[in-house]
UniProtKB/TrEMBL annotation:
Residues 8-106 form the DUF4873 domain. Residues 75-116 are annotated as: Disordered. This is DUF4873 domain-containing protein. It comes from the Bacteria. InterPro entries: DUF4873 (IPR032371). Pfam families: DUF4873.
Amino acid sequence: MSGFGDDEEEYRGTVTVVLPGPADGEDGAAVEVDAHLAGNFSPLTGDYRWRGRLSASPEVTSAFREGARTVVVRTPDGFEGTGDLGEPNLWGGHPVNGAGSPPFAVPRIDVDELDA
């Protein structure tokens, strides 16, 4: 994905997208798709911002058309993040972005050590 910079952590591979369930707070279908995700710490907002794209999936597109906008993205390593699902692109995939814990490993930083 163009625009990903050298200061960003990246993940490429299979993810599980957990779609919203029929009732608030319930998980719906879990769909495996390929993804390219990246993120970085935002010093202006003080949180971690991540974004990427999901490969085409009829299940994800159907859920989007039915109103799903928030999904959980999980990687096989056990990391997960909640993201906002965007309109399908020309190839049928969806952009996704989130703030907070990303669905991939990132280096741990001890803030106290930065102040020293």
